[in-house]
Amino acid sequence: MLALTKRKSVARGDQFFVQYRMSEATATRDALAKGLYSALFEWIVLQVNHALLSRYDVKGEHLGNSIGVLDIFGFEDFHLNSFEQFCINYANEHLQYYFNQHVFKLEQEEYQREDIAWKHIEFIDNTSCLLLIEKKPTGLLHILNDDCNFPAKDEEGQNLLRKFIKEHGKNNYFHQVHATAFIIQHYAGKVKYHIKDFRGKNTDLIRPDILKVLKNSNLSFVRELVGADPLAVFRWAIVRAFFRARSAFVAGGVRLRTQGRTPVKKPQSALKSHNDENIQKHVSDLHEPHAYTRNRRSSRSSRSSKKLALLSPGGLCDETYAKARKVLKKNRSFRGAQSQPAKTLRDLNSMRRLRGDKMPGMRRQSQKKTQTVSIQFQGSLNKLMDTLNQANPFFVRCIKSNSEKEPCKLDEKLVMRQLKYTGMLETVRIRQSGYNVRLTFEEFCHRYKLLLSNGLASSVDDIKEFLVEMKLDQKHYQIGMTKVFLRESERIKLQDALHLKVQEKIVLLQWWVRGVLQRRRYLQQQATIIAIQALARGYLVRKEMQAQEERLLAAIFIQNYWRTYCFRRSFLQLQKGVLYFQCLIRGNQARMHLKEMKEEMNRLQEEDILRLKDEDDDDRTMVPHIEPLKGGLEEVRSPESDEGILTPRVGR
Asked: Which residue range or ranges hold the Myosin motor domain (predicted)?
């Protein structure tokens, strides 16, 4: 609060405070708010750009194309116009100049360079207005900056206005209204500016004492915004993390030497004596160290106790420790998860790529001249114009329907005035009478190579003959030194012809593709038919072979059966003949045997008769001999049975 109400001054080595007046205190407050807002805006842009930055963008410069959208405040003309409106209208003058260069001047210069028959179109050129504002060293901005370099009490701006009038009193774009205002003839009309507060708003920077208060804020986010360059903030974060880690390791070593290797469930409880929450947070993430040996613990125990005595409250460095605690307490809130997005700034390469300037509030002390608001604004505008000059622009004009910003209300005078001052009428005229299609010979041949007789090898004469053959209106196209200039109507005719030619090529290509597909389909069908035929023929052949095999097997079976039958019949006949022959032989043998038996029987009978005669008792014995003999005779008489033939001799 003291920095907002009092100002510190130094005179002859003595420091004293001067009370602000109400207007000065209000201006200081507004400067503080604007500085914080600007710093916050820059920080948000930095974070967004870093979030969109890929890892490939950090490796090198981007060589491809990019798309940018520029949307700024329009031309402003209020009842009371001051330094803000002056800067905004100055930026719009630059953009209007850029628009005129691209739409009018550069286009007509190209027509003259290509030796095209062209009637020059006049347009509102605001070059003189820009020279009035920014020309060195007599421009209004340079006069304002030079006046701000010298301390003087000129709140009403009378001296500054006199300097303006002295340099530009005879300029057609500068007019003096009265002692407190002046008029500039802009492209959109005359605007009256009040000179009051021009000087104060141009030097509307944060005073050193206000900046010091913000740098010593308890909020690390505020210190990050206004305290330093982002690179310095990044480096300081690394240094701070190093010292925090060192303090945590020292505390861990002290705990290890005092308590031993016993596991600690709550590591923060070992550091309660230090009463430092920030160190406790970092030590809580540490694991129990195991690299110390007993010899190292014994050799460093005395030195660690001295360090503990110096670090703990009530030791030899109590005041230093309190200051260190205060600094750590301030930096405690500076954590990536709280003050920055999830995707934080990772390395210096990304920082250097995102930021080429300093953060707001950071001023180089080596600069001799004051870095005024107009100088910063002019530098930013020059960078913007350099970027636009390297691009291929597309313009979108926004017209206000009324000054009250009410819906469904159209102020014809306001709309016509905007169309007039923005050069839209001349733009429409140059678009209607100009050639909006401009193609080099190579581009023309490449685009319409299907229509040209020689294709890409076509010459300028071939292009002329082609345009004549297309029966285009000669008033709507011209051939320059290196380009072909066409109007939209002729371009449409060429596009229609190209479309028909492309359709023919497409039909031809479709015919060829369909022919290829049909032939491929035919070949596939032919191959399929051949495969089916091969399978069918194979099936029929296998079936016929199977039938032949069955017939062959049947013939073999019949042959076997017939041969078996023939052999059996022959065997049976042979067997029957053999049996018959055997019967004959055996019958003959039996008859011969019977004959012998008869002879023997007769002989025996004769002997028996003789014996009977001799002995009367032998009659009984003769009867058994006669009975077998009778039986043998009966068997001999029946030769039809085989068994009788094979009967052995009786009496043997």
From this structure: 1-499
Residues 6+ apart with CB under 8 A from 6: 17, 18, 19, 20
More reliable by pLDDT, 437 or 540: 540
Instruction: Please measure the distance between the N-terminal and C-terminal CA atoms of the chain and give it in whole angstroms.
Output: 170
Per residue in 42-54, pLDDT (tens digit) is 888 878 877 776 6
The pLDDT-based confidence of 575 (bands split at 50, 70, 90) is: confident
For residues 480 and 115, the answer to whether their CB atoms sit within 8 Å is yes
Query: In terms of residues, how long is the chain?
Result: 652
Q: Which residue has the tokens 């072979």?
A: 545
Q: How far apart are CA 109 and CA 573, in angstroms?
A: 136
Q: How many CB atoms lie within 10 A of CB 276?
A: 22
Domain ranges of the chain: 230-354, 491-645
Estimate to the nearest angstrom the gap between the alpha carbon of 200 and the chain centroid: 50
pLDDT, tens digit (0-9, with 9 covering 90-100), for 391-427 = 888 888 888 898 888 888 999 988 888 887 777 877 7
The single-letter DSSP state of residue 401 is S
- DSSP for 197-209, please give it: THHHHHT----HH
359 has a pLDDT exceeding 80: no
Calculate mean pLDDT across residues 509-528.
94
Residue with tokens 């916050």: 40
Strand partners, 478: 485
Q: Where are the alpha helices (DSSP H) in 615-650?
A: 619-637, 642-645
Matching residue, tokens 């948000």: 44
